[in-house]
Amino acid sequence: MSTAAGAPAAPRASRPRQGVEYWVRTAVMAVLAALVAVPLYYVVVNTFKTQAEMSSSPLALPSRLYLDNYVEVFGTVPLVASFANTLVITVASVAVMLLVGAMAAYTMVVRSSRFNTVLGLCLLAAFVIPGQSTLIPLYRFLVGIGLIDTLTGLVLLYSAGSIFCYFLIQGYMRTLPFEIIEAARIDGAGPWQIFWRIVLPLVRPILITVGVFQTMWVWNDFITPNVFLTSSANRTIVLQVYSAVGQFSTDWPSFMTLSVLAIAPVVVFFVFTQRHIVAGLIGGAVKG
């Protein structure tokens, strides 16, 4: 009886501390979330204001629902073409990066050798080089092969992101049960069959995770399209946002309206795929 009577004492003593810690964490996270949400609130609210109202009260709610900014943007900016260009570049680039990264990771993991180790170190060295330092050589390279100011040239440039995919996918692949691969080899399956039918389905969580990261990077990237795309017909949606900035003055409501339209698809995409990011990263960490 003394044991049974004493057992609840510890939980009763710890509950107040757990409660305080919980509310403190909640309060801190609420403050941080509010700080992060303020810029988004500022941008979205001002899309429903006139230039004068925005200047006078930028953080206040609009006095009325003013939709002329959206009407003007849809009427003057080729949004459909810009979204189509961005979608083509993003889908093609991410597909190439995932394919090349997965194939490289599979080769490095399955065929471990001194050469592969040295090659992996070279890839790591290339990964840490700032992309801005290579813009001029890359520009001259695309001019030489006739792919400057083309969507294909931009996809070719983004394919360098395969190095990032390779590092994440390789770490996940090392946790796989390679007895399955050995069994497939014994059954007569070739390297391509093993890769497509066994390995890729097993690493699907990390492929989704890396795909989300790279999709958000390519969609939101500004520097690369701004340097390598010159014609208005090939502009991405981010470049259309930048085109609203004038040399001497800026129509800020239109600029913010374009910004909202540009980030809305990627925000929706992230909301629906964020659980795959956590699942992919945690899965690679706890397997094996």
Automatic annotation (TrEMBL):
<keyword id="KW-1133">Transmembrane helix</keyword>
<feature type="transmembrane region" description="Helical">
    <location>
        <begin position="118"/>
        <end position="139"/>
    </location>
</feature>
<feature type="transmembrane region" description="Helical">
    <location>
        <begin position="83"/>
        <end position="106"/>
    </location>
</feature>
<dbReference type="InterPro" id="IPR035906">
    <property type="entry name" value="MetI-like_sf"/>
</dbReference>
<keyword id="KW-0813">Transport</keyword>
<keyword id="KW-0812">Transmembrane</keyword>
<dbReference type="Pfam" id="PF00528">
    <property type="entry name" value="BPD_transp_1"/>
</dbReference>
<keyword id="KW-0472">Membrane</keyword>
<feature type="transmembrane region" description="Helical">
    <location>
        <begin position="194"/>
        <end position="219"/>
    </location>
</feature>
<feature type="transmembrane region" description="Helical">
    <location>
        <begin position="22"/>
        <end position="44"/>
    </location>
</feature>
<feature type="domain" description="ABC transmembrane type-1">
    <location>
        <begin position="83"/>
        <end position="273"/>
    </location>
</feature>
<comment type="similarity">
    <text>Belongs to the binding-protein-dependent transport system permease family.</text>
</comment>
<protein>
    <submittedName>
        <fullName>Carbohydrate ABC transporter permease</fullName>
    </submittedName>
</protein>
<feature type="transmembrane region" description="Helical">
    <location>
        <begin position="151"/>
        <end position="173"/>
    </location>
</feature>
<dbReference type="InterPro" id="IPR000515">
    <property type="entry name" value="MetI-like"/>
</dbReference>
<keyword id="KW-1003">Cell membrane</keyword>
<feature type="transmembrane region" description="Helical">
    <location>
        <begin position="252"/>
        <end position="272"/>
    </location>
</feature>
